[in-house]
């Protein structure tokens, strides 16, 4: 075999390793999980917000979150909030609504965000008939990758994100092993197993690849609503 073919093969093998699927062994019985209905938490999920309290969270600035809780949702106020628990690879479900009263435009309309490990932001934004740069609109991996389509509902309507995140991890040789994002927005695939190489998003609280970190919901000065947040650990 020519050396050119070898190096091509090596690149392909490395790429396959970096994006190996989360596989189930053929001789292991898949665990039984009772699924939720209409986005409710399945039996093996950790519920992070059930509409009643934010006891799983702290303010980004320390202390208890100052967010207003009413009618089963929490409204962004005062500062971002982050989970007390640290997470690595996860499946996350979160529901959000941008303000029904439309104010501002571009990045100033209904801006918040879900920062995985306090580092990598999946953007929350009112992108319903509201133009901005593509890798900054709703469901973008902020600053890195635009969504495949714009699946935004109207301002004030509840929207869902179902996100599979594999964390980039520090490798033994000091080189970061890429992770990945897969994002489904309102039932529509918008990020298809895209690489997460360890570069934190703009305004991230933390930086540097790490096995685990907190989930963080961003305060961008807009009263975005959140409800029904749950997570399943994948490792
Ligand atoms: Mg944001």
Please provide a written account of the structure:
With 235 residues, the protein is mainly beta. It folds into two domains: 1-30; 36-233, Jelly Rolls, CATH 2.60.120. Helix content is 7%, strand content 31%. The chain is built from one helix and 15 strands, in the order αβββββββββββββββ. The strands form three sheets. Strands 1, 3, 4, 6, 9, 12, 13 and 15 form an eight-stranded antiparallel sheet that branches. A five-stranded antiparallel sheet has the order 2-5-14-7-8, with no helix packed on it. The protein has a two-stranded antiparallel sheet with strand order 10-11. A hairpin with a 2-residue loop joins β12 and β13 (188-196). The longest helix is centred in the N-terminal third of the chain and has 16 residues, at 3-18. It is globular. The chain starts with a helix and ends with a strand. The model is unreliable at 1-9 and 11-16 (pLDDT under 50). The protein binds magnesium ion. Magnesium ion is lined by residues 111-113, 121, 123-124, 218, 220.
Q: What is the topological layout?
A:
Layout: H1 3-18, E1 46-49, E2 57-59, E3 68-70, E4 73-75, E5 81-83, E6 90-97, E7 112-116, E8 120-124, E9 159-166, E10 169-170, E11 176-177, E12 179-185, E13 188-196, E14 216-217, E15 225-233
Antiparallel strand pairs: 1-15, 2-5, 3-4, 4-15, 5-14, 6-9, 6-15, 7-8, 7-14, 9-12, 10-11, 12-13
User: pLDDT under 50 segments (min length 5)?
Assistant: 1-9, 11-16
Rg for CA atoms: 19 Å
Distance between the termini: 39 Å
Mean pLDDT score: 91
Categorize the overall geometry: globular
Number of strands: 15
CATH class descriptor of the largest domain = Mainly Beta
CATH topology of the largest domain: Jelly Rolls
- Count up the helices: 1
Biggest pleated-sheet summary: 8 strands, antiparallel
Helix/strand order: HEEEEEEEEEEEEEEE
In terms of structural class, how would the helical and strand content be classed? Answer: mainly beta
Number of separate structural domains: 2
Strand proportion, as a percent range, falls in 25-35%
Write the CATH homologous superfamily of the largest domain.
Answer: Exo-inulinase, domain 1
Kindly state the percentage of residues in helix: under 10%
């Amino acid at each position: 075999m020519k050396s050119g073919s070898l190096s091509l093969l090596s690149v392909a093998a490395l790429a396959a390793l970096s994006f190996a699927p989360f596989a189930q062994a053929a001789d292991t019985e898949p665990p039984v999980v009772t699924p939720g209905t209409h986005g409710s938490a399945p039996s093996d999920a950790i519920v992070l917000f059930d509409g009643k309290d934010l006891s799983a969270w702290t303010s980004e600035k320390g202390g208890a979150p100052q967010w207003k809780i009413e009618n089963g949702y929490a409204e962004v106020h005062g500062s971002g909030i982050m989970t007390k628990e640290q997470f690595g690879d996860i499946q996350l479900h979160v529901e959000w609504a941008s303000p029904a009263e439309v104010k501002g435009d571009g990045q100033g309309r209904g801006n918040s965000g879900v920062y995985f490990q306090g580092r990598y932001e999946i953007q929350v934004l009112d992108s319903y008939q509201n133009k901005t740069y593509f890798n900054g609109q709703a469901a973008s991996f902020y600053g890195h990758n635009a969504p495949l389509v714009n699946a935004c509902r109207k301002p004030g309507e509840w929207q869902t994100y179902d996100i599979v995140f594999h964390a980039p991890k520090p490798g033994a040789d000091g080189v970061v092993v890429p992770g990945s994002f897969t994002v489904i927005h309102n039932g529509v695939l918008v990020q298809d197993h895209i690489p997460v190489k360890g570069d934190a998003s703009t305004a991230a609280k933390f930086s540097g690849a790490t096995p685990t970190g907190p989930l963080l919901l961003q305060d961008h000065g807009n009263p975005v609503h959140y409800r029904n947040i749950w997570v399943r650990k994948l490792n």
